[in-house]
């Protein structure tokens, strides 16, 4: 989407940082209360409509779920899960979408300058012009969100409706939600809202209720209320998501080590030449025995 | 035949061309005042590998770090690099396989070759110390490069396939592939920097072995004394 007019905090594959810090912006967040979601999928439809996405055939997966996973043309999917615990049964619904991490693994893994950007308000966005379709963001994302499209040879994912947000509107999914389980505002406000909802849930008997805002990725731009807060995996959420070790090792360690190794090898050869010089055959006139005139 | 050595015959009087002609099909032969070191097939394989090594390197570096992003311009941008890199990697791997088959029987470590396996042995070579009269056609360092280049290519190919089709592999394998691909190419490129230096500036007369295909007897006696003795039959008159 690459919304014009929004300050960029960080950009993929930048040599220097992108942020100027010129304009102050509040970090925004989407609030998802999984305990009041009724699985109506109005948010799915709103997302498809607002973003003018191509129609994706639905797939019967044995539940109300529209299709097995997210798609390059389907950025918002309600995941239905049935969990049996201690003789109890839980029918869980969670809105699966980009989490807009403060420390985005996709952006870290992306090798194309400017293909993934994080705006000053925390929204992580894709710039299809710069995307080279390498799929490295898929490995970088701890939430399995970015999707490659063979048709466009680009990656696509939820933009948190940055085009709406930058003109003061809430994301399309939030606008469409009929139960009020979705809200949009500053991260601070959404966390406060989530805390009050968790207190409410605890009073209702859900002692393990909690807010999912994983610190391993610096917190997310999606604040999720879970009635079973001690078991995010029941909802299909990783317990302690982090930018993958392999991606961090590549970018933070191997890259500088490699550049230094190339420079070291080059200067070692220059130093060798200056110190030892070329290895020439001794005495130009010396003839091998039996050899004719040379 | 033109390869017969006449007394007083030197390059530029006809024998030079004879050496090039002879070097098309046969190596390890003396022609005039030159020794054919690499026949045409050997040189074609070497340069095919070298060219695709650099296509892979120059299309890979801008993807690896934006520091080398300017290299993508030579190929028409990062999108082209992203398309060209895996395909040129496949071609590179095929030529490296050809190189492996072509040379592997000559690359067994014998005698003092294994001295190159230790840092101190390698250092002795670079300090021009420890001359070994038993060095054959390839010294331990060249053999080491051959095996490490083959190993690196295998690792690059396997990890590259995972990176090319990540959806077909698990998260752990994908992450490991980034690390393996990086480590293999960093080591490979550092070795190639040394290889190019030794083949050009450091050891005059070596580069001709891979272009014209020939070296001088003095060069052969200095760098590969045992090979020199074998090729010349102890003397310098053989035309075998």
Walk me through what this model shows.
The complex is a heterodimer of chains A (294) and B (240). Chain A has 294 residues and is of the alpha+beta class. Helix content of chain A is 26%, strand content 18%. Chain A has helices at residues 42-50, 105-109, 136-140, 162-165, 172-176, 187-203, 245-276, and strands at 8-11, 28-33, 77-85, 88-96, 116-119, 124-126, 147-149, 154-156, 182-186, 210-212, 222-226. In chain A, strands 9-2-11-10 form a 4-stranded mixed sheet. Chain A has a 3-stranded antiparallel sheet with strand order 1-5-6, with no helix packed on it. A two-stranded antiparallel ribbon of chain A has the order 3-4. In chain A, a hairpin with a 4-residue loop joins β5 (116-119) and β6 (124-126). The longest helix of chain A has 32 residues, at 245-276. The radius of gyration of chain A is 26 Å and the shape is elongated. Residues 284-294 of chain A have low confidence and may be disordered. By secondary structure, chain B is mainly alpha-helical. Chain B has 9 helices and 3 strands; from the N terminus they run αββααααααβαα. Chain B has a 3-stranded antiparallel sheet. In chain B, α2 (40-64) packs antiparallel against α3 and α3 crosses α5 (140-164). The longest helix of chain B has 32 residues, at 171-202. Chain B is globular.
> What strand order characterises the main sheet of chain A?
9-2-11-10
Number of E-type strands of chain B? 3
Shape of chain A: elongated
Oligomeric description of these chains: heterodimer
Name the helix and strand elements of chain A from N-terminus to C-terminus, one letter apiece: EEHEEHEEHEEHHEHEEH
Beginning-to-end CA distance, first to last residue of chain B: 12 Å
The total count of helices of chain B amounts to 9
Strand tally of chain A: 11
**pLDDT averaged residue by residue of chain B:** 90
The helix-and-strand class of chain B reads mainly alpha
| Sheet/helix structural class of chain A | alpha+beta
Which overall shape of chain B is indicated by the principal axes computed on the Cα atoms? globular
Major sheet size, sense and barrel closure of chain B: 3 strands, antiparallel
Radius of gyration of chain B: 21 Å
């Amino acid at each position: 989407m690459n919304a014009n007019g929004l300050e960029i905090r960080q950009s993929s594959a930048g040599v220097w940082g992108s942020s100027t810090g010129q304009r102050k912006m509040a970090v925004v967040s989407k609030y998802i209360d999984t305990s009041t979601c009724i699985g109506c999928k109005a948010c799915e439809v709103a997302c498809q409509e607002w973003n003018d996405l191509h129609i994706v055939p639905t797939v019967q997966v044995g539940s109300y779920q529209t299709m097995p996973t997210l798609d390059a043309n389907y950025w918002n999917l309600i995941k239905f899960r049935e969990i049996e615990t201690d003789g109890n049964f839980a029918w869980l619904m969670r809105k699966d979408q980009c989490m807009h991490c403060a420390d985005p693994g996709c952006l870290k893994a992306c090798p194309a300058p400017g293909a993934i950007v994080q705006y000053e308000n925390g929204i992580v966005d894709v710039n299809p012009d710069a995307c080279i379709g390498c799929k490295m963001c898929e490995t970088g994302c701890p939430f399995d969100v970015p999707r490659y499209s063979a048709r466009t040879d680009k990656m696509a994912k939820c933009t948190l409706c940055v085009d709406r947000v930058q003109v003061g509107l809430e994301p399309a999914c939030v606008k469409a939600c009929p139960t009020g389980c979705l809200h949009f505002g500053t991260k601070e406000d959404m966390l406060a809202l989530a805390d009050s909802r968790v207190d409410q849930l605890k009073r209702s008997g859900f002692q393990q209720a909690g807010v999912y805002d994983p610190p391993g990725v610096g917190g997310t731009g999606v604040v999720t209320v879970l009635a079973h807060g001690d078991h995010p995996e029941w909802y299909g959420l990783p317990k302690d998501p982090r930018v993958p070790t392999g991606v961090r090792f590549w970018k933070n360690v191997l890259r500088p080590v490699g550049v230094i190794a190339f420079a070291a090898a080059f200067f070692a050869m220059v130093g060798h030449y200056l110190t030892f010089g070329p290895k020439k055959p001794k005495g130009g006139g010396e003839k091998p025995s039996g050899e004719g005139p040379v | 035949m033109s390869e017969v050595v006449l007394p007083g015959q030197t390059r530029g009087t006809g024998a030079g061309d004879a050496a090039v002609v002879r070097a098309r099909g046969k190596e390890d032969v003396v022609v005039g005042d030159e020794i054919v070191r690499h026949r045409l097939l050997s040189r074609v394989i070497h340069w095919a590998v070298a060219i695709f090594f650099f296509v892979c390197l120059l299309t890979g570096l801008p993807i690896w770090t934006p520091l080398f992003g300017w290299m993508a311009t030579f190929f028409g941008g990062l999108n082209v690099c992203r398309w060209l890199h895996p395909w040129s990697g496949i071609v590179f791997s095929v030529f490296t396989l050809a190189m492996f088959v072509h040379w592997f029987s000559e690359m067994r470590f014998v005698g003092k070759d294994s001295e190159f396996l230790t840092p101190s042995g390698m250092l002795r070579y670079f300090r021009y110390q420890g001359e070994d009269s038993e060095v054959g056609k390839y010294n331990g360092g060249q053999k080491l490069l051959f095996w490490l280049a083959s190993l690196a290519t295998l690792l690059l190919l396997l990890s590259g396939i995972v990176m090319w089709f990540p959806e077909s592999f698990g998260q752990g394998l994908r992450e490991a592939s980034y690390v393996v691909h990086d480590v293999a190419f960093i080591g490979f490129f550092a070795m190639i920097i040394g290889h190019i230096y030794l083949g050009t500036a450091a050891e005059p007369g070596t580069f001709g072995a891979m272009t014209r295909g020939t070296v001088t007897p003095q060069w052969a006696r200095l760098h590969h004394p045992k090979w020199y003795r074998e090729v010349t039959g102890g003397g310098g008159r053989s035309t075998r």
